[in-house]
Amino acid sequence: MQCIIFSEEYCHPENLFPFTLTRRIQDIRVGILTIREKWEQSLGLSSFDKWEGDYKESTRSITIDGNISEGNYLMIHANILPTPALTMAIKALQPGQLLMHPVSGAIAFHFNATDVASLHKIRVRQTILYEDDVPSLQKPWDIFAINELAIQLDVDLITKGRRSAEISATNQVIGKEKVFLEEGARLEYCIINASVGPVYIGKDALIMEGSMLRGPVAILENSVVKMGTKLYGATTIGPFCVAGGEIKNVVMMGYSNKAHDGYLGDAVIGEWCNLGAGTSASNIKNNAGPVFVYHPASEGGKGMAGIKCGLMMADYSRAAINSSFNTGTVVGVSCTVFGSGLLPRYIPNFSWGAEGVRKYDFDNALKDIRNWKKLKDNDLSEREENILRYIYDNF
């Protein structure tokens, strides 16, 4: 097989709102790697995206029709995470074979150019049944719910046959054999407990003095964990993030900041977000009842996320100091959130404020995003700007 082609067909990207407004499902980070990166490393193949005909198309998009280049391809449903057993089953597929789960449905399809009849019409020659577990993302809260498994799978995948960099003797470590440091990771006078799950620290990450890490935890490249931070499993601090305060069972996808005191639990924070000092988010109701979350794809516009669900914040959004988020709050794309007391449980895309919400001026929103990206030596690409414009005009 020459490459992977990810398909969102039948994956219902709208079910992963708001994180799929700005990215394909396969580019969601869960565990250490994005779903795309997991499959590329598991199979040793580069990847592309099936052309879906929407505003998120990129140079990675491939149209599957009679003009597709000769060769063998592997189509994978974008919301599925690889396991060793599933990877083996996929590698064993022959051209024309579709791997199918009795409950989850289609998983992967090995085809070649001669199997393509017309636009996105591909002949299936044989169905192969796969009955083991198939971890997948169905709803946005699955991202934190499945994060413990995802961290363990990713640690096994990316550290196999490798040795950890040395851990300084100033640190107190329980379960040292489950701690893996990439070269350039720096930490002194920290407490690490990996007895209940692995701890992975990426290249050039900095864990400041007094931090306490209880696995499973993944801190990715060039991220900073501030002094005295308390990280509980299963937490992912994505690349170029800043983390501080108390964080439990959270995925920060990348380039985002929760740098100060305050609590964040059972939550997902997209890219290029910032939570001001003292910001906290409730993750359980006072009556310990089920948490219903704004979810436009569900009946009545609400989905039941379980007993615990905190903040779901989409890309490019920011909250002022001492912001107080209600249980199961959803914040849309590119919001500037401020207001007194508990904030609304749904804050729409491009909101300015929270009380009597008004819409962010688009040009000002872009200017502010560029300013934030400059802080991490980055800039807003033309494709990002086009995606944001589409969201502003249509959602």
Write structural notes for this entry:
The protein is of the alpha/beta class and 395 residues long. The strands form 8 sheets. Strands 10, 11, 13, 14, 16, 17, 19, 20, 22, 24, 29, 32 and 34 form a 13-stranded parallel beta sheet that branches. The longest helix is centred in the middle third of the chain and has 13 residues, at 147-159. It is globular and about 60 Å long.
CATH class wording of the largest domain: Mainly Beta
Which percent range fits the helix content? 10-25%
Q: Approximately how much beta-strand content do the residues carry?
A: 25-35%
Give the number of helices.
Answer: 6
CATH topology of the largest domain, anyone? Answer: UDP N-Acetylglucosamine Acyltransferase, domain 1
Query: Could you name the CATH homologous superfamily of the largest domain?
Result: Hexapeptide repeat proteins
What distance separates the N and C termini?
A: 38 Å
Uncertain stretches: none
Number of β-strand runs? 36
Largest sheet: 13 strands, parallel
Quaternary structure annotation: single chain
The 3D shape can be described as: globular
Features:
single chain, 395 residues, alpha/beta, 13-stranded parallel beta sheet, 7-stranded mixed beta sheet, 6 helices, 36 strands
Structure described in brief:
The protein is built from six helices and 36 strands.
Write the layout of secondary structure elements.
Blueprint: E1 3-7, H1 35-43, E2 47-50, E3 61-62, E4 72-77, H2 84-91, E5 97-101, E6 105-112, E7 116-118, E8 121-122, E9 126-129, H3 142-145, H4 147-159, E10 172-174, E11 179-181, E12 186-187, E13 191-193, E14 199-201, E15 206-207, E16 212-214, E17 217-219, E18 224-225, E19 230-232, E20 235-237, E21 242-243, E22 246-254, E23 257-258, E24 263-271, E25 274-275, E26 280-281, E27 292-294, E28 302-304, E29 312-313, E30 318-319, E31 324-325, E32 330-331, E33 336-337, E34 346-347, E35 351-352, E36 358-359, H5 362-374, H6 382-394
Parallel strand pairs: 1-2, 1-4, 2-3, 5-9, 10-13, 11-14, 12-15, 13-16, 14-17, 15-18, 16-19, 17-20, 18-21, 19-22, 20-22, 21-23, 22-24, 24-29, 25-30, 26-31, 29-32, 30-33, 32-34
Antiparallel strand pairs: 4-6, 5-6, 7-8, 27-28, 35-36
